[in-house]
Structure prediction request, 264 residues.
Amino acid sequence: MSVRIAVLAVTACLAGCAGPVVRPTLSPSAPKRDALLVLTGFGYGRSAEKAIRSLAGSTAREGVDLYVPSYVTRTGLDDSRAKLERYIRKNRLDRYERLHVFAFLAGAWTLNPLLERQGLPNLVSVTYDRSPFQERAPRIAADELPVLAWVRYGSTVFDVAREPYPPLTSPGVKVALMVESKPTAFIKRHDEAARKLGPFAFECGSLGQRYDDCLYLPMNHNELYTRLAEVWPELLTFIRTGTFSKAADRTTPVDDPLARRGRQ
Prediction:
């Protein structure tokens, strides 16, 4: 694989963390409204930014203001947590009666230790994007493409690769899991390395995170970024009720997409 192709492969796997934020302009009190903080991560590129921005109108119509910070640094998870903490404080998210979080993978690694340390008094719910496939991507990139991973993302991707998933244990917060059931092209290309890290466990209880409800998505990580609008109805249902709808897919996948290489 040439250097250029390798760079593109890592970029496709972990693509851009940066990008403009979605930040509503509100009165100081923000009365009777909810806030949704979407914590993007290594898969956040231009297409994802456009898709998430397009969701702002739908959330606003439901009385939910959307915030999407650029918080992932090149200098490690500790600095990313400090940057996220400053963002929350600067945007005065404590003004809201109810705060909700949707966290992509790097978002959980950043947010959870921060919440365990200090908490957010108005935090009501956290919905996590989880993937038995994609959560191996940082480790694979760090092990097999370390120079390229460092050039593109600095030490943060290595922190995520090294640190086990840090669960949220706060009892007063409703927790949901949305589990991706398809691998990205990067994971398919590195299926042997992915399998060496152990069996893929899709059972909700095997993901090391307490939860109030859990569903499965017929998407891979890249697709979820660009199709978040399709997930919004279930996310809104959880925000409003603390559970997903009756129509949510709660059936644990038993098929192995990596055994069918070349197919989506």
